[in-house]
Each structure stands twice: as C-alpha cells, then as structure tokens.
Amino acid sequence: MQNTPSPDSAPTARTTPATGLILTGGGARAAYQVGVLAALAQLRRDAGLAGPTPFPIVAGTSAGAINAGTLACYADDFDSAVDGLVHLWQNLHVEDIYCADAFGVIRTGARWMTMMSLGWAVARWRRTRPRSLLDNSPLGELLHKWIKMDRVEQMLADGHMRALAISGSSYTSGHHVTFYQAREAVTPWFRSQRIATPTKISVEHLLASSAIPFIFPAQPLTLGKKMEWFGDGSMRQSAPISPAVHLGAERVLVIGAGRMNEPEGEEERRTLVEGAPSMAQIAGHALSNIFLDALAVDVERLQRINNTLSLLPASARENTPLRPIDVMVIAPSRRLDELAAEHQGALPPAIKGLLRSVGVAGEGKGASGSALTSYLLFEPPFTNELINLGMSDTLARRTEVQRFFGWPTQPPQIDAAAMRRRRGGFVEAAGLASEPARV
Fold first, then answer.
1. DSSP state letter for 110
2. Which residues of the chain have pLDDT under 70?
3. Which residues of 282-314 are buried (b: 16+ CB within 10 A; e: fewer)?
4. Cα–Cα distance between 78 and 51 in angstroms, integer?
C-alpha cells in the first residue's frame, strides 16, 4: 500500500483527525462487524456523545460493503444506523440471501455440479450453463428495499461523510477496482493491477463487491465507457487499507472477519485431518486466503511504515510524502469456522444436501468443511453469536478503544446495587426517583 496523501487530505484546523473505517469481506462472517459497531456505539454513548457518524471515511469490501453502504446512507445518525444493522443481521435467514429451496438449488447448484462432471456432454446447450453455485437474487431484492443509496449524496453534501469507497474485482480486465464517492474532488489513484474511479455508488456496486467467487454470480458494472463483469472485491485486493488513506483518513479502524493470526501454541493443539482434504476444505482454505490474508499483510505494512517514520528526524519527515497513520484492528478472538461448525445444522435441508456433496458434514467438534459453511451460514443461531462475539471483543478492549478515539471515560451513571434492584422495567438510581428504563 502506498501511504501517500490524497489532494483532500492535507491537515486542517480541526482537532479530531479524519477517521477511516475498513470493513472487510466474508459473507455471513460480516455479522461480527455489526457486533463491533454496536459496542462502539455503546462506548460512544457512555462518553456522552451522539449524532453523526464518527467515521467520515468508510471503505467496504464484499459483505463489508453492505455494512459500509448502510453506515454511509445514515451517517447523520450513527446510533440509528447501527441499530438498523443489528436488527437486519439478527433476523437474516439463508432465504434472504440466496435461493435455498430444492428447486432453486437444482436450478443452480445441482446444474453447476453436473457441468463439472458432464460438461463435455452438454456444453453445446448454453442455457444449461449456470453462472454460480447459488442464486443470490434474494439479496438484490433485500438491498433495494433496505439501503437508500441516494442518501449518500446528501450525507456528503451535509458534511456527515467525506467519502465512501466500495471495491470490486473485474473478471473482464483483471483489475482490482475501487469505486468511490467523495464530497470533494479526489484524484484517482493507479497502482499495479489496482485502479480507482469516482462514481455514484449504487446497490449494484454492493452486489458486485459481495459476489463471492464461484458461489454467487458476477455482476455487470460500467467502468469508464464500457461494461465489465465484477466479482468479490476481496479478490486481488493487495492493499485493503489503501482506499481510506487515499481518501484522506489520518487514522484507521479495521474490523476483520477472521483472526489475524493464530495464538501461540494454537497450531500445535489442532489435530490433522486424516486423508486427503475434501473439496469443501479446499474451498474454505481458498476463501480464507482471499478474505483474510491480504488484510493481515497490509496492516503489517502500515505498521512498518509508521515505525520507519518514527525513526526519521523531523526535517526528513517533512521532505517525504509519507505520513504516519494510526491504525487499530479489531478481529475475532475465536476461529469462526469452529463457531460455524456448531451451527451447520441450521442450514436448510437443500443447502445441506448440496454442501454434503462437496464434503460438508456433521455438526460440532466432528464437523467437516465448516470453513466454507462460515461464509454461507446466514442464520440467526450463527449470526447472533457473531454479533455477541464482536461486542464482547470490543468491550474487552474498552480502554484501548477510548484512547484511539479520544473519548472520555465516564463512570457508570447507575451503580451496581441499583442495577440489581432493577425490576419490571424500572431503574432505581441512588438518590433519585424511579423512572422507566429505555432498553
């Protein structure tokens, strides 16, 4: 990642640095991001703060693009935007994202599997060629109802947002493309196999960015004066943090969709799988490489740049276009594939049957193929656990979060004894009359 400032990123008289938010991909795993955001909203309220978003620059990729689009659309009321995301993800079902009935699975997944084995015999009939393993048309319908992308322009004009960036990968040209919509003019940046272009971001950009390779179909988008086919933005994304930096972020919060690294001794405790890996295990491994590895590398790169800049004298720092970027990463404390293994049984029967054919089986400790399942398990038992995990991971780092944002630490307004006396929707605060509690 080139740690270079964009034209609109020069320091100003404001006391609060422009904060960028990076929301990465991962299908159903993106529910973890919502838990983190909910905890951040709570800590912000604890500090006596409310109102517009604390993230004027938001960059989203894959399923993170959907969360990013929601935050940008309702940037004038951060708490309401987060509450909406929590409600959405808590009530999502597989049928809201992709066709999970027997007919829908036969129409896409079964035909896709047939083409893999008998393609030589049926290749002449183009209509039999499915575009993906699953049909995500329900997601398109949901997003058109849920997200009012036209509000982004108003949020920018009102000063609540500085920029929104959504990334996708072009199957047509092979480029990783960042589409961005900014309040002020930002010169597009070009790197090896990476380009950026200003545009008015739409639901179609969110669908393209979240089109998991092989699993969901590619989406057509206009790039320049021609149409190209795009898939998941995590593919070929070598620098996930770069868009926020180019758009003027001076500090960055990154919310991951998987553990950045294994705790010491964890790998030794994990047992080897007997026999050759199944297709599901290989697919899960490949998706983890796409969604997780680039982020860890980019964070390390940014930290190295910061360390290098800290060693330079002030005169040398003034003569370089590089600038230090404060970065904080919040990522799951548990392996999400192991968490998904506990809930594989929540998948609809037709989907379980399809995934069983590639090696997904069982539930709990004896489950296999759960890494693949973790990207497709849009069911409340799993997504609610991810939300709770995101909240607990963030609250466990309360002091670090408050320091990062510069939020004051305030003592609880209600002491523990008063909380224990909470009954029937009322809170008894010491020395105060009881009043209805908003819960």
1. I
2. 1-15, 102-130, 259-275, 292-293, 317, 366, 410-439
3. bbbeebbebbbebbbebbebbeebbeebeeeee
4. 6
